[in-house]
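name: query_chain
kind: protein
chains: 1
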Amino acid sequence: MSILKIARMGHPVLRRVADRVEDPLDPEIQRLIADMKDTMKDAGGVGLAAPQVFQSLAIMVYYVPALRKSDDTDDGEIPLSVLINPEIEPIGGDIVDGWEGCLSIPGLQGVVPRWNKIRYRGLNEKGESVEHTAGGFHARVVQHEYDHLIGVMYPERMEDMSLLGFNEELRENPPETNFRQSATTDAESHDEET
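structure:
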């Protein structure tokens, strides 16, 4: 497998809507998925979308580490997963704020509002239909990666740009702010980037 170069914010591939994948079992798609997994692990991320590796295709890989899960029954540890041609829909009206980083915006993080609970569906890497309900961090990761597939970067979702900063500065000088958060969502800063 290969470690792929990651596109950085400003590159046109990150601003367009990704193309649907017609055949998930195509050997080129399978190779891309394997390379995306390796690239995400190598970069220390929890999610990666195909546009981030210069491929405008509707594919994401992600996982939820045990330390990020919450008490929400829809927010548990998730093994490394693949979602192709995803669709998402919010469940309820609960919006929560949380820190996000991005492999395409290295060294920075910001506070982003997201739906606390979503339903998502698509295909897995075997071409099988999957549908899940996700809450908390699990929902945040899927929404972040889905945004890459529709040409949106997390700063575009931010409501307060004063809550965007370099990781080291934010660790040493955490901003004082009131977060919208559910009882089950951890809105603390983290080092993983999606």
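note: The longest strand covers residues 78-90.
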